[in-house]
Design brief:
about 500 residues; 19 strands
Length: about 500
């Protein structure tokens, strides 16, 4: 039985704690915040309540595997609801598209909204994405990252290499398969699921819409924060000691192997294994003293492009919106201008800035637990944003910036048919700087590093650190961000540590 310390009670850390506890290890979880969940946050005020992070579950089988491996079915712990429609889109030309919650229904909906032939184009793209998924799921997403060895597994069959097309971007794949420009915009959006730019992100990200539509989009009744609480409960049931309000100052090592952690409040906890759910950049730059063993990982992090962040409005609204979907996405006329502003490229080269005309994402669950009465709504509004970088980018703490930009986002919403300005009871703005402070994500980068560039996946830190006994979970490590991949990172680490 190993003594395990898990740094961070985000979903990755909690899932690792539950799995390692089920394997017979003695586990202690240390979380700096006063509650569990990390980016699976929750905000309540005056009866209005909001998920402040992820707002849907995809690939629920990964969560079912976690709960089955640690003591009981997922459905006994949370109430999953399949969304139909999965999302409602509003395009710049006025076209509206409600994407059904079941894959077989999607082509017909596309034909109806965009014209005959649109469904066939999308279906052909998803057929390619399904083939990509079959090739990459096991050797890449469910296995440790092992550099050239991982590439070798993917390259055993030349036809597989041609299917995955590691040299091709997501934008390039869309240009090849999709004639309708609105479909190309729809595909581009999925690059943002890994905090990336579709013009640089790999074509294999087409697996994201395939997974979403093949396995469904799901909501946890009562809010997705309940998922984090359920995993924390499962970890405790397996013997884990989950301590909140307990920040870690340093990961300790001796002779090239971890020996425990030093607490910010003083004192040390001895450990045979340390699992870090902290942002990988924060781990290698601060929690872990630099040494020659970690030099290559730190170099890779400096070469990678940080992921985008997000600017959020929590809107407490009077009244109800007829026909409002659970998720609504309203696109701008110039999507490329958004990515230029976020990443400081193109017309904004070297000078990232808040997006003047952003894509607007609205999550508005029809869930009584999120509103004070039936004549109210609680909207989580997200727009893509550059990370907090006062020295070389945007200083989101600059006086007045958050309020000014909140007003701009409300104006954009109004122009896209989502004018709620006369219904607002109150509004809370949350910037990338707030995200950085609350979760430890450097600069508020939601996914750590982006998928920009063909080598981006191999610049992402692996789950086994160069220091023996140290492992990484969460969205900033392999295999990446998003609830399914974060949960898989914990499965990979549990396999690396092994049973007691």
């Amino acid at each position: 039985m190993a003594r395990v310390v898990v740094v961070g009670a985000g979903l990755g850390g909690l899932a690792a704690a539950a799995r390692l506890g089920a394997l017979g290890h003695r586990v202690t979880v240390l979380e700096q915040a006063d509650g569990v969940g990390g980016k699976l946050g929750w905000f309540e005020r005056d009866g209005h309540a909001f998920d402040t992070g992820p707002s849907l579950v995809t690939l629920p089988q990964v969560l079912r595997d976690l709960f089955d491996a640690t003591g009981g079915p997922l459905e006994d712990a949370v109430d999953l609801v399949r969304l139909d429609p999965a999302v409602a889109y509003r395009f710049a030309d006025g076209t509206r598209l409600a994407v059904p919650g079941h894959l077989d229904d999607v082509p017909g909906a596309l034909d109806g909204a965009l014209g005959d032939g649109a469904g066939g184009q999308w279906r052909a793209l998803l057929d390619r994405a399904e083939a990509m998924w079959a090739i990459t799921e096991q050797p890449f997403l469910r296995s440790p990252l092992r550099g050239a060895a991982t590439l070798a597994r993917l390259a055993r069959d030349p036809s597989d290499v041609g299917t995955v097309a590691p040299w091709q971007t997501l934008r390039g794949l869309g240009a090849r398969h999709l004639r309708d420009p609105r479909l190309r915009v729809l595909l581009d959006r999925y690059a943002t699921y890994s905090g990336s730019d579709p013009r640089r992100a790999p074509a294999v990200l087409a697996t994201v819409p395939w997974v979403e539509q093949a396995f469904g989009s799901w909501y946890v009744r009562g809010g997705l924060h309940r998922l984090a609480e359920a995993v924390a409960d499962r970890a405790r049931e397996r013997g884990a000691d989950v301590r909140t309000g307990t920040p870690v100052r340093r990961v300790l090592s001796d002779g090239g192997r971890v020996s425990g952690v030093e607490l910010a409040e003083g004192g040390e906890i001895t450990a045979d294994v340390v699992v870090s759910g902290a942002d990988a950049t924060a781990l290698y730059a601060g929690l872990l003293p630099p040494n020659r063993r970690t030099r290559a990982v730190r170099r890779g992090l400096t070469r990678a492009t940080p992921s985008l962040s997000g600017f959020v409005l929590l809107l407490a609204l009077r009244g109800r919106t007829p026909g409002l979907a659970h998720h609504t996405v309203a696109f701008p006329a110039d999507y490329d201008a958004e990515f230029d502003a976020v990443f400081g490229t193109g017309r904004h080269r070297g000078v990232p800035c808040p997006v003047p005309d952003p894509t607007v994402y609205v999550s508005a669950p029809d869930d009584p637990t999120t509103r004070p009465d039936d004549d109210s709504e609680s909207w989580f509004v997200l727009v893509n944003a550059p990370r907090h970088d006062p020295d070389a980018g945007v200083d989101w703490d600059a006086p007045g910036l958050a309020d000014r930009y909140a007003g701009r986002v409300l104006e954009v919403m109004a122009a896209r048919g989502l004018d709620v300005r006369d219904r607002v009871r109150w509004c809370v703005a949350r910037t990338p700087a707030d995200l950085a402070r609350e979760t430890g994500a450097v600069g508020g980068s939601i996914y750590g590093t982006s998928s920009n560039g063909a080598r981006a996946a191999f610049l992402r830190p692996g789950n086994a650190a160069p220091v023996r006994g140290l492992y990484l979970v969460g969205g900033s490590s392999h295999p990446g961000g998003g609830l399914p991949l974060v949960t898989l990172s914990a499965e990979i680490v549990a396999g690396l540590v092994g049973p007691a």
